[in-house]
Amino acid sequence: MPAAALVAFTAFGVTALLGGLNEAPEEPEPLGQGAVLDQGLYSTRLVESRVTVERAATRFDEDKHFVELVFDVTNKGDETRSVGIPAQKLEQAYLSDSFAGSLLKINPSFGEKAVPFTFVRTKGGDSQQLHPGVTSQVIVRYRLEGDRRPPEKISFEMASFELTTGFNNELPRWQMVATEAGDSYLPEVKARVTLPVKKGGAA
């Protein structure tokens, strides 16, 4: 056997002995408008991203412009859940079991002070609740401050949830899928989403 081949064969054997060849991690699924994502606790359809305008009530007020993310969300659990908000810090996201808490790394950023307003649109008025087995329209709304123009597209990552038991609780509960990172946990990315931002429309 040639020396080069012998070295390669030996290296392969050592690798196999120490636990086998490392498999490349699975890349998060790229998704776009209309796709449906199974998040474990939620089944989510990516409806659209759009610009909406709330017209001024008087001539002394100003029109308000928003960028909205729109989802059709089904709560697959057996308890009513809050729609929640995206975490301001990634290392805090794993603590959430809300739908909006699963939205990660939204790009472009709307600024540190741009906390979104999230709600469930219902026939009887806006709500903060996702009821079991019910498909609801969820809107995550960011206000465009000053003369800021809306982006052409918006991208974000989405986490998922699993039913698991804790150290001090034998009853299974839904938790965000996350991996340990130092003193905290970071959510595992289930999907990467890119949506075009549609212009126009009243809030």
TrEMBL record:
This is Uncharacterized protein. The lineage of its organism: Bacteria, Bacillati, Actinomycetota, Actinomycetes, Streptosporangiales.
